[in-house]
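Hi Prof. W.,

I finally got the Isopentenyl-diphosphate delta-isomerase prediction working! I wasn't sure whether to trim anything, so I left the full sequence exactly as given:
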Amino acid sequence: MTERPSSETEDRKDDHIRIVQERDVETTGTGFEDVQLVHEALPELHYDAIDTSVEFLDHELSAPIFIESMTGGHQNTTEINRALARAAGETGIAMGLGSQRAGLELDDNGVLESYTVVRDAAPDAFIYGNLGAAQLREYDLETVERAVEMIEADALAVHLNFLQEAVQPEGDVDGRDCLAAIKRVVEDLSVPIIVKETGNGISGETARKLSEVGVDAIDVAGKGGTTWSGIEAYRAAAANAPRQKRIGALFREWGIPTAASTTECVAEHDCVIASGGVRTGLDVAKAIALGALAGGLAKPFLNPATNGSDAVIERVEDLIAELRTAMFVTGSKSIPDLQHTEYVLQGETREYIAQRTSGE
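And this is what came out:
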């Protein structure tokens, strides 16, 4: 039997994982460096009694940590997703899947398994699916429900990645009518909707629009971590597309810093995930102090996932220990306590937020 040649979508997914692992795709400037939690020298609690659990969309998670949407859509990603899902299941945290477009549009069992493996590996974990806003506009509700059913998803993320699309040589740059498409699935889909950026942040104004149409959660995915513009610049160079390469490099550090985006979004929505350059449990603690419910990481889990679920579990446990320590030295016995802990905002983030607030 002749093997089916890989599709453009599959090749793109494979390119993304390879580039993230092999090239410089990191930016700086999350703003967390400007967030100083106030030390509590007399915490009056036992470290072991600290409760890191949190309720998210009617599910209890052991810790406010998300394995952010990364991959799927190519057979090479199956084992990565298996390791990530097993780790999420065993540690009791949430996991997002990469875009399911390939699973919906390609008739291939190998591609489908790269998605379905997550529920097989983690039958009880909180798993959320993923579709792009541009695709959501094109799909009828039945097709979107297929994405949910594919992995027995607990929620569906709708990703906003228009800068990435603008840099891609083959990108979809029609950004019209996406808010209406989001509203349609919010009203009729069988599971909650999370709207997430992909590394450039969400402003307060956009968060307000999303809140008004009823989205259940917002994932800010701000500037300061993996740059998808930079990733697409590498792909454009390989595809001999010099204009797209230049644009990708020019916009490599474009976006709203994660700390600032988190601050703006929590003013508009009560269920916010902070991601984008989150690298430690202390970063997670700072995000929660700013008002987020949880922090999400993607790239830091990728290399451990290539070594199997045990390596991912160890990374998660490190993050939880770091978070617990931050809670201990701020006197925060629970996540709600941490959301109300004192902090000092300094530097560029303070200036950014002040200018944004004064302009309203």
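Residues 27-358 form a domain with the TIM Barrel fold (CATH 3.20.20.70). Does that look reasonable to you?

Thanks,
D.
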